[in-house]
Amino acid sequence: MHIQFAELPVSDQDRAKAFYAEHFGCRAVADQPMGKDGWRWVELKFAGAETTLHFVRRKDGGAQDDPVLVLVEPDVGATIDALRSRGVEILTEPMNPPWQPGRTVAEFRDSEGNRMVVASP
Mapping DSSP to helix (H, G, I), strand (E, B) and coil, where does residue 17 land? Predict the structure, then answer.
């Protein structure tokens, strides 16, 4: 079994789409009108991955405080350095958590305020 897409709460679809394209090389595999209020069905695909991101409308307008998504990257430090150099808010520096020995994790906020995790495989 595999997950086909992960839902990501956003307030601004265009801003989120640009963030993931710029910082993670995602490309749109779907961007179609959905309903009468201007909301669209947007799916982004990460290069080399099966999973796509699907944007859902944020109901409360506030930032997500619990981690929403874990991105698995072999070099967590390089990923965090690249995000920082482009002005992305870094929440935690790369560390080896005691609950996952041998793994490196770090956290950042995306353009919509979602708390995200980058973790080594």
Answer: helix
**Residue 28: burial class (beta carbons within 10 Å; 0-12, 13-18, 19+):** middle
What does the alpha-carbon distance between residue 1 and residue 4 come to, in Å, rounded to a whole number? 9
Residue type at position 73: E
- pLDDT at res. 1: 43
Question: Residue 101 carries which side chain, given as an amino acid letter?
Answer: P
**CATH architecture of the domain with residue range 5-119:** Roll (3.10)
pTM (two decimals): 0.85
Residue 6: both structure tokens together: 């992960």
- Binned at pLDDT 50, 70 and 90, residue 68 comes out as confident
The whole-angstrom separation of Cα 26 and Cα 20 is: 6
